[in-house]
Design goal:
- The strands form 8 sheets. This protein has a 5-stranded mixed sheet. Strands 18, 19, 21, 22 and 23 form a 5-stranded antiparallel sheet that branches.
- It is globular and about 70 Å long.
- By secondary structure, the protein is an alpha/beta fold.
- α1 crosses α2 and α10 crosses α11.
- β11, α10 and β12 form a beta-alpha-beta unit.
- It contains 14 helices and 29 strands.
- 30% of the residues lie in helices and 25% in strands.
């Protein structure tokens, strides 16, 4: 079946009264909003924004959780001819001062003409906008109160979306996505997944993150399928509820980072799955962070007896500057893992790396050396991306410290990887590596090995660089448990021969992470070199 290329707002024209979004409520209940209802709410929002003075190409910031109001705010801003920008509500951060510092930078970069938020976020967001001299935020319900819907969408903005990078390499960078790029990427994903309105999807990822926003919500709505929408905390509270929904509603598509699969494995036991079936689940998109092959194998063992097909696991690669997806494993191919050519990368014992699939429609992928020359299969170099889905550029003085830069036709990702038979394998960030005896060692590879030895994700980060003139590897452990330092000493001393090894003990919540949970290695490395990294620093000695 041919998958059509639809405009981003085409779903507003003849919205279904039968299909729509199901939002998770308490006690396993769901609140249904048909696409017809959501379309009406979206056009009301568009008209309300125009009445508030929002004009074409203005930025509208949305600070809301996944909800009917968020959907209407996102697409309503587009329909008003403005550029929507989703920013995380305060609940996404552990400490208020971290949230204020992070989000103040986002607001200053976005410079919104208006901010739409929910009641829970109002007081906090109002303080931030006031400090920056920006217009006061408005609660969504008040925005649309008494406003009749627009007859049709206004002329679209030049930029269909303003989104931010994760900030793992420093401050998040604002990225402008044109309507053509967003449409091309959404269409490419739909064709990659052979996604039709008859195939329900499910999502729990936060809607301020590109994987949750574009990969899940936007794809579900523009496809017109039924979508089952959970909050991140719903999934954390009960991954079994998530699995039950997949089984009971015959869900076909899902998406999450490796962390989500690992969490399911920790919280769900085989006995919990009695009577459930997962044979409908044909696409589980895996992205946002490195994928552990042991996690994939364990998930197959857990869900396989209930009809789950390992070929449904679809690793992918992309980023904000690609709009979202650049590569994805084709349906039915089945995931594989391999090591780069000998000596090409410093992963412990040449650890296996899970392939992230092949270029999507309209995307080109190459791997080059330091001089920009293409490398042969198996050789590690910088990943370059080209094609119709690339962002238009950065907002404001974004700088290039992250190692990622957008050219006229090519994106230099700052990521290291290699190709094998047309499939991309991602090793890690070029700025998160250290050359040891002629070969690169990458922090993500060392962290992957630590996870294999029992150190949980989001509790450890490895920092690599030159400190006081000496090659240095530091392991940051959050609320360390017995045996973690022994494992870290084993892994780092094996991979970083002759390097100085340090251990940094931080309390719970002391690990610097992005709003999506990625370690902010460069931020922590800078603090380590300046002597301002919180916690206790000393030599790494096996406990």
């Amino acid at each position: 079946m041919s998958i059509p290329d639809r405009t981003l707002l085409e779903w507003l024209e003849e919205p279904s009264t039968e299909r729509g979004l199901h939002f998770a409520d308490v006690r396993d209940a769901w609140t249904f909003r048909s696409y017809a209802e959501l379309a009406g709410l979206t056009l009301r929002t568009a008209e309300a924004l125009r009445r508030r003075g929002v004009r074409r190409d203005d930025v509208v910031v949305i600070v809301q959780r996944s909800s009917p109001g968020f959907v209407a705010g996102l697409f309503g801003a587009m329909a008003a001819g403005a550029t929507p920008c989703s920013i995380a509500p305060p609940f996404a951060f552990q400490r208020a001062d971290d949230y204020d510092k992070h989000v103040s930078h986002l607001f200053a970069t976005a410079a919104p003409a208006l901010t739409v938020c929910d009641e829970d976020s109002l007081d906090h967001v109002a303080k931030i906008t006031a400090n920056l001299g920006l217009p006061a935020p408005v609660v969504f319900g008040e925005l649309i109160d008494g406003v009749a819907p627009a007859q049709r969408p206004y002329p679209p903005a030049e930029s269909a979306l303003l989104q931010f990078t994760s900030g793992s390499s420093g401050f998040s960078r604002g990225v402008r996505i044109s309507g053509a790029a967003l449409r091309a990427n959404v269409t490419a994903m739909r064709r990659w997944l052979d996604w039709s309105p008859e195939l329900p999807g499910i999502a729990w990822l936060p809607v301020h993150h590109d994987m949750g926003l574009i990969g899940c919500l936007m794809n579900i709505v523009t496809t017109g399928c039924d979508g089952w929408m959970m909050q991140p905390e719903d999934f954390i509270r009960s991954p079994l509820r998530y699995l039950r929904c997949i089984s009971e509603q015959r869900v076909g598509l899902a998406a999450m980072p490796n962390f989500g699969l690992a969490y399911i494995l920790r919280r769900v036991k085989p006995a919990d799955l009695e009577g459930l079936r997962f044979d409908s689940l044909r696409s589980v998109i895996l992205g946002a962070e490195r994928i552990d092959p042991q996690v994939l194998e364990a998930l197959e063992e857990l869900l396989g007896p209930h009809g789950f097909d390992r070929r449904a696991l679809l690793p992918a690669y992309g980023g904000a500057e690609c709009t979202l997806a650049a590569t994805g494993l084709p349906l039915g191919e089945g995931w594989t893992a391999r090591a780069p050519e000998s000596g090409a990368a410093g992963s412990p014992a040449d650890a296996r790396i899970v392939g992230c699939g092949r270029p999507l429609e309209g995307v080109g992928i190459s791997v080059v050396d330091d001089d920009g020359a293409p490398l042969p299969d198996g050789a590690v170099g910088e990943i370059l991306v080209s094609g119709t889905s690339l962002a238009s550029g950065y907002v404001g003085d974004a700088g290039t410290a992250s190692g990622t830069s957008i050219g006229a036709e090519t994106l230099r990702t700052g990521d290291a990887g290699f190709l094998h038979d047309g499939q991309l394998f991602v090793v890690g960030r070029l700025g998160d590596g250290l050359k040891v005896h002629g070969r690169m060692v990458f922090a993500e590879s060392l962290e992957a090995r630590l996870h294999e030895l029992g150190v949980p994700e989001r509790r450890v980060a490895v920092l690599l660089g030159v400190r006081d003139g000496a090659p240095t590897g530091a392991v940051v452990l959050e609320n360390a448990r017995p045996g973690w330092k022994r494992a870290a000493h084993e892994v780092l001393s094996d991979a970083l021969t002759d390097a100085r090894l340090l251990a940094v003990d931080v309390p719970r919540g002391g690990l610097a992470v992005t709003s999506s949970g990625k370690p902010r290695r460069r931020v922590m490395w800078k603090a380590l070199t300046e002597g301002t990294l919180p916690g206790t620093t000393g030599p790494l000695i096996a406990d």
